[in-house]
């Protein structure tokens, strides 16, 4: 078996923020962790982080990475036309008000696969001097239009271990790799 370089999955990153119907976040997280992690990874995606946000009790935030822009289209096509998504999509979609708050990003500084020691994950939408990973809006057009991405940028997204003004605390779920 060939070793996988998970840092290569930082080449293309989706920061996905779902607004959910009140009180349904834990229902979606349970479904997501039980049914969607392995099939997406088998299709060629890498799920870095699955998060709750304390500031928004009806929001689910997650990070999905790909080794290339072309690999993104292939992985998404494989997953969203596959049997797992077909079986559970209605159940997942029933929890959501909006799933279109998605940023398609490229790395400025990689580091999601090897964050510094410590606890806490913070995301901010500006450059942060304490960031262990920094991304910027991917300027190429969305190559999987079935899943919309935001085009109102550009954005810079920083991940750090330390709170800073404007940073949002992300609370990892049990299956989150980024902790």
Automatic annotation (TrEMBL):
Output the InterPro entries linked to this UniProt entry.
Dimeric_a/b-barrel (IPR011008), NIPSNAP (IPR012577)
Q: What SUPFAM superfamilies does the database record attribute to this sequence?
A: Dimeric alpha+beta barrel (SSF54909)
Query: Which residues does the UniProt record annotate as the domain NIPSNAP?
Result: 14-108
Question: What's the short name of a Pfam family annotated to this entry?
Answer: NIPSNAP
The protein here is known as NIPSNAP domain-containing protein
């Amino acid at each position: 078996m060939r070793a996988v370089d998970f840092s290569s999955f930082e080449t293309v990153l989706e920061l996905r923020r779902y607004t959910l119907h009140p009180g349904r976040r834990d229902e979606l997280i349970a479904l997501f962790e039980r049914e969607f992690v392995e099939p997406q990874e088998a299709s060629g995606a890498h799920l870095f982080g699955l998060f709750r946000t304390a500031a928004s009790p009806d929001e689910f935030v997650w990070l999905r990475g790909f080794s290339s822009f072309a690999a993104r289209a292939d992985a998404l096509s494989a997953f969203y036309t596959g049997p797992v998504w077909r079986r559970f999509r209605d159940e997942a979609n029933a929890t959501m008000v909006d799933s279109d708050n998605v940023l398609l990003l490229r790395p400025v500084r990689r580091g999601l696969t090897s964050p510094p020691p410590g606890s806490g994950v913070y995301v901010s939408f500006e450059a942060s001097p304490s960031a262990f990973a920094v991304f910027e809006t991917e300027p190429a057009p969305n190559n999987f239009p079935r899943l919309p991405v935001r085009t109102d940028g550009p954005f810079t997204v920083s991940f750090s271990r330390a709170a800073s003004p404007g940073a949002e605390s992300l609370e990892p779920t049990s299956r989150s790799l980024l902790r």
